[in-house]
Amino acid sequence: MNDYQPALDQLRERRKGKPGELLLMTGLVAMIVAPFGLFLTNQESGNLSDLKRSGMVAEAIVKDRSLESESYTDRKGRTKSRDIFKLKLSHDFNAQQKYADWKAGKPFPVPQYPAVTTREIAVGSTYFDALTAGQNTTIIHNPLDYGSMMLTEEFEYKTSFAYMMWWYLGAGAVFIAGLAMTITGWRKRFSHA
Q1: How many CB atoms lie within 10 A of CB 182?
Q2: Nearest to 136 by CA among 151, 126, 147
Q3: N or C: more exposed end of the chain, with fewer CB within 10 A?
Q4: 58 secondary structure, DSSP code
Q5: Residue ranges of the alpha helices (H) in the chain?
Q6: Helical packing angle, 21-54 and 161-191, nearest 10°
Q7: Burial of 186 (0-12, 13-18, 19+ CB in 10 A)
Q8: What region, left, alpha or beta, does residue 105 occupy, with left being phi > 0 and alpha being psi -120 to 50 degrees?
């Protein structure tokens, strides 16, 4: 009845791929992604080290909190949204000190001429929930790059040994899983050759 059935079956078999091919490719991708992730982590770590070396710390007052919802379209064309947690902070630009001095416990200088400025920064949901309007906190920023401003608690967390260790362990786990998938896929793929 259907004269083309053998050709369709052959095409379907060809489309399936050989055993182990998908596992082999997934493993290779995982082995490539892990070092790239470490490279990006080290870049961020370098930026944070610069901030630690030349950053200025100041006392800030939380003036306002806002939760913004940002809409976007994913790869499949579906509309999605993500929450952005923002804090409006007010701090005295003339009452700041170096990060090393702040870490040593030195008091903040009292300026003769205060220069109070306000800035809105994005923070994680944990820090957003922990701070309320009118509450005091501390911020760190590079005087030459005002966009580098962040809460000192968040900065301390991102520069901690435990935070970096989680990234290294995660990348190592992805690499080892990729290596195992590659070896298994290689054996399945080329044992049937």
Answers
A1: 20
A2: 151
A3: N
A4: E
A5: 5-16, 21-54, 99-103, 125-130, 152-158, 161-191
A6: 160
A7: middle
A8: left
pTM here is 0.74
Contact 51, 103 (CB under 8 A): no
Give which of 56, 18, 23, 55 is closest to 183, Cα–Cα.
23
155: nearest Cα among 142, 165, 166? 142
DSSP string of 83-100, one letter each residue: EEEEEEEEEEEEEEEEHH
Residue identified by tokens 């930026």 is 47
Per-residue pLDDT 10s for the chain (193 aa) are 567 677 777 767 666 667 778 888 899 999 999 999 889 888 888 888 888 998 899 999 999 999 998 888 888 888 888 899 999 999 998 899 999 999 999 999 888 888 899 999 999 889 999 999 999 999 999 888 878 899 999 999 999 999 999 999 999 999 999 999 999 988 888 875 5
Place of tokens 């306000």: 118
Structure tokens at 15: 């489309």
Distance separating alpha carbons of residues 116 and 112, to the nearest angstrom = 12
